[in-house]
Amino acid sequence: MTASKKKRSALSVSEGVSPPDPINKEAVSRLKKARKKQYSTAELLEGIKQGDTGMLSRAITLIESSLPQHQSESEALITACLPLSGHAFRIGITGVPGAGKSTFIEALGNHIIQQGGRLAVLAIDPSSERSKGSIMGDKTRMEELAGRPEAYIRPSPSGGTLGGVARKTRETILLCEAAGFDTIFVETVGVGQSETAVHSMVDFFLLIMLAGAGDELQGIKRGIMEMADALVINKADGTNIQKARRAQAEYANALHLFPPSPSGWTVQVRTCSSIHQTGIEEIWQMALDYQNHVTANGFLERKRKEQSKFWMYETLREGIFNHAFNDPGMQKELKKHEKAIAEGKMTSFMAAVSILNKYKSK
Ligand SMILES: Nc1nc2c(ncn2[C@@H]2O[C@H](COP(=O)(O)OP(=O)(O)OP(=O)(O)O)[C@@H](O)[C@H]2O)c(=O)[nH]1
Ligand SMILES: [Mg+2]
Predict the structure, then answer these.
(1) 91 alpha carbon to ligand 2 midpoint, in Å?
(2) Are 73 and 99 found together in one domain?
(3) Helix pair angle (68-81, 162-178), 10° resolution
(4) Which of 93, 102, 206 to mutate to test the pocket of ligand 1 (most atoms within 8 A of CB)?
(5) Per-residue model confidence as pLDDT tens digits over 183-239
(6) Is the CB of 97 under 6 A from ligand 1?
(7) For the chain, does the N or the C end have fewer beta carbons within 10 angstroms?
(8) 334, 355 in Cβ contact below 8 A?
(9) Computed over its alpha carbons, how large is the radius of gyration of the chain?
(10) 70 and 95 part of one domain
């Protein structure tokens, strides 16, 4: 085929300048790279040390991952952050839905930042369904805080058992501390076992309550009150002020009946209005008083050591249980024994011994 014939063919493509791409390919590839970029543990650690919250978020996502290939990287990162952690004041905040936790955190958080602090707000919410709701709620209730560079708000890790979620939150505390946050809030909703988990990872545990719900001691589990270092009666504003004061006196009386705390700290009852920001400053001062008290008498150090031990055994218990009972044979044994208990053919104790014997002979 001659060159001239080729030019005349209907299939030939006339030479010319190719049209520009409708999309800026270079920008797209840069974006893709940024999205996909896998940071090394060293890069994440460096970012955390510099207080870069973008890198902190990536690191937290890594430790939250349940993929086995992330395990060793995640462990390396936590180990590297460990010596940089431990200096922050860790505060647990709980209360029934609607008590005003988010609004209170917004008010107290802004106050702490005004005092020169840097605050990380974490949450433990074992039901992932609810956590979606509270993230949405928190965005509007913590508007000012969320916009501040001195604040870092991270919703609860979702899914998994309470133990798993709690362990990840505990590790997240370490990462946040390594990133320079000097105050850590861990929020949980006061309706289940999650308070116990939060209590086992904080220095100071604050229970937010409402006045005027009939009998002041109703609806609130004694166990939660016993864990608290301070009770805060929120919404003490408008016509509610008197009711809040009465509730304060009643709770203070009720607390007298509790055994003294091993910290030597007397549990305080305060009132506040998170919306009007009254009583917030005093509550922060009280928290700092507590911190000074337990630092001076050595209780804080002992408590943190106990907590570390507790989480080692918790994780161990869960790991051993999963390892032992994840196989179908043992699952069947569990179900069989559950049924035997339900039908009254065996006591719980007998069933447990029988299951353990099955496991040992496996
Ligand atoms: N009057 C008054 N209302 C308040 C106060 N604090 C919170 N509220 C209101 O109470 C409602 C619940 O407040 P939230 O801060 O969302 O409560 P929460 O405890 O975070 O609730 P959940 O996230 O559902 O567990 C909102 O309508 C707030 O505006 C307060 O100090 N005074
Ligand atoms: Mg909330």
Answers:
(1) 16
(2) no
(3) 40
(4) 102
(5) 999 998 866 678 888 999 999 999 999 887 644 444 466 678 888 999 999 999 999
(6) yes
(7) N
(8) yes
(9) 27
(10) no
Whichever domain contains 330, its CATH number is: 1.10.287.130
SS3 124: strand
Residue 153: left (phi > 0), alpha (psi -120 to 50), or beta?
beta
- Residue 251 Cα to ligand 1 midpoint, Å, equals 21
Judge if 122 and 261 occupy the same domain: yes
Residues 230, 97 share a domain: yes
Enclosing domain of residue 109 = 85-297
pLDDT at 54 over 60: yes
For a mutational test of ligand 1's pocket, the pick from 93, 94, 103, i.e. the residue with the most ligand atoms closer than 8 A to its C-beta, is 103
Within-domain flag for 40? yes
**DSSP count for the chain of H helices, then E strands:** 16, 7
CB atoms near residue 88 (< 10 Å): 21
The reply to whether ligand 1 has any atom less than 6 angstroms from the CB of 78 is no
